[in-house]
Amino acid sequence: MIYNALQAVVSQLNDFLKVNFQQTEDKAILGTILDEEGSVPEGNRNKVIMTVVNMDQETAAQWARTFVREERGGKKYELNNPLNFNVDILVSTLFTDYDESLKFLSEAIYFFQAKSVFTKEDTPKLPDNIQQLSFETIKLTYGEAHSLWTALGAKYMPSVLFKMRMLSFQNSERQEVYEVLYPVVVATPDHNMN
What we know:
Elements: H1 2-21, E1 28-30, E2 47-57, E3 66-69, E4 76-79, E5 83-94, H2 98-114, E6 117-119, E7 132-138, H3 142-152, E8 159-169, E9 175-177
Parallel strand pairs: 1-2
Antiparallel strand pairs: 2-5, 3-4, 4-9, 5-8, 6-7, 7-8
């Protein structure tokens, strides 16, 4: 679901960049900034790179279990509430010409400013189980930015960090719940007590 949701967004970002830079080549990609050896992959050069840098669980919802009663046979099934996640997305630009990096980053920011909410109606490539995604910027201090780029193992590139709200994971499989009947113990007075 994460991949499909982000690919739908990257596809629209590419359409936007193609129009604004009069190009036919896709300039936005989904991927890591560096490969496993710590090098910049050739496919990342002269691109806008969208990278998942964090996922945090949305805990605003109640986490009680939901019980669904099946109509046939009176069986009880247990269905957990969905797990909801917000995903932090780093949008960075890696162009050999620094000026181009800044131009493409600016256009990416314009794109997310103009379209901060993606719905099934305006983004048909969104997976069927996603009704809406929204993007908001995350402000980082110098120390937080340094920590992020250190964790990525890369040198700083022009970039902006967004929080994508929210992906909801819901397994449709239900677990049958069996009622446990405990024997009823009735206390009776003991007549042998003095």
